[in-house]
C-alpha cells in the first residue's frame, strides 16, 4: 500500500488548535528554551485524561504549567483535580500564574519540592493517571511511587523515553509484571524534541 509522501510535513498539517494562553506559553518556551510537551502531546494528554474519566491526576514536572493546563481541561468534566510537582520555586510561581490566566486554579495544585520526597509523603492508591516528565534519570526511582500511588487500572504516561537517561526506566517497566506497558517512537510536531519516545502503561497488579 502506498504511504503518504513526506509524512512529517503532512502530519504538521494536523497540529491541534489551542487557546491563546497555550500559544503564548509555546512562544515563551521557545524563547527561553524551556522544554514543553507541545500541542500534539498536550492534546494526547487531554484525550487520555478525558477517556479514562480521570478525577485525580498526578504530574511530575510542572515547568511553566503547559501540560498541567491540558490535563486540567481533560479532567474538568469529571470534576477532577491535578496535583503537579515542581522542584524550582520560580518556575512553580510562573506555572501558578499561567494556570490562573487559563482559569484553572481551582483544578490545579502546584507543589514545590523534590518529586521523590513529595511522593513519599502521599498516601497510596489515590490517582487515576500519572504523567511523568522530570529529569529522565529520576524516572526509574519514581516508578515505585507511581505504582503505589496509582489505582489498579490506572494509567502511567512517560514523556521523553527516547532520551538515554530514560533507558533504566524503559528496561525496568517492561520487565515488571505489575505493568502492561508499550513504548512508541513518535514524530511529535512542536515537541521538544520532535522525534522522541512516549511510554504508556497500565497498572495491572
- Through-space gap between termini: 40 Å
Structural class: alpha/beta
CATH class: Alpha Beta
Using only CA atoms, what is the Rg?
16 Å
What is the correct CATH architecture? 3-Layer(aba) Sandwich
Strand order in the largest sheet: 3-2-1-4-5-7-6
Order of helices and strands: HHHEHEHEHEHEHEE
Estimated share of beta-strand residues? 15-25%
Number of strands: 7
Helix content: 25-40%
Number of structurally distinct domains: 1
Give a short account of the largest sheet. 7 strands, mixed
Instruction: Output the CATH topology.
Output: Rossmann fold
What is the overall number of helices?
8
Low-confidence runs (pLDDT<50, min 5 residues)? none
CATH evolutionary superfamily: Vaccinia Virus protein VP39
Shape: globular
Overall pLDDT metric? 97
Describe the overall structure:
With 205 residues, the chain is an alpha/beta fold. The protein has a single domain, classed as Vaccinia Virus protein VP39 (Rossmann fold, 3-Layer(aba) Sandwich), CATH 3.40.50.150. The protein contains eight helices and seven strands, in the order αααβαβαβαβαβαββ. α3 packs parallel to α4. The longest helix is centred in the first third of the chain and has 14 residues, at 38-51. It is globular.
Descriptive keywords:
single chain; 205 residues; alpha/beta; Rossmann fold; seven-stranded mixed beta sheet; 40% helix; globular
Amino acid at each position: 500500500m502506498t504511504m503518504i509522501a513526506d509524512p512529517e510535513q503532512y502530519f504538521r498539517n494536523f497540529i491541534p488548535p489551542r487557546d491563546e494562553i497555550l500559544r503564548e506559553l509555546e512562544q515563551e518556551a521557545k524563547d527561553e528554551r524551556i522544554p514543553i510537551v507541545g500541542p500534539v502531546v498536550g492534546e494526547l494528554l487531554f484525550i487520555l485524561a478525558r477517556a479514562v474519566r480521570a478525577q485525580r491526576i498526578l504530574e511530575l514536572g510542572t515547568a511553566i504549567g503547559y501540560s498541567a493546563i491540558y490535563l486540567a481541561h481533560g479532567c474538568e468534566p469529571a470534576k477532577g483535580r491535578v496535583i503537579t510537582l515542581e522542584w524550582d520555586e520560580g518556575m512553580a510561581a510562573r506555572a501558578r500564574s499561567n494556570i490562573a490566566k487559563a482559569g484553572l486554579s481551582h483544578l490545579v495544585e502546584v507543589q514545590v519540592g523534590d518529586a521523590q520526597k513529595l511522593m513519599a509523603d502521599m498516601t497510596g492508591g489515590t490517582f487515576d493517571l500519572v504523567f511523568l516528565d522530570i529529569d529522565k534519570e529520576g524516572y526509574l526511582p519514581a516508578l515505585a511511587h507511581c505504582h503505589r500511588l496509582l489505582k489498579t487500572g490506572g494509567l502511567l504516561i512517560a514523556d521523553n523515553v527516547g532520551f538515554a537517561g530514560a533507558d533504566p526506566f524503559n528496561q525496568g517497566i517492561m520487565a515488571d509484571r505489575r505493568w502492561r506497558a508499550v513504548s512508541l517512537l513518535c514524530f511529535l510536531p512542536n515537541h521538544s524534541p520532535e522525534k522522541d519516545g512516549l511510554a504508556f502503561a497500565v497498572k495491572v497488579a
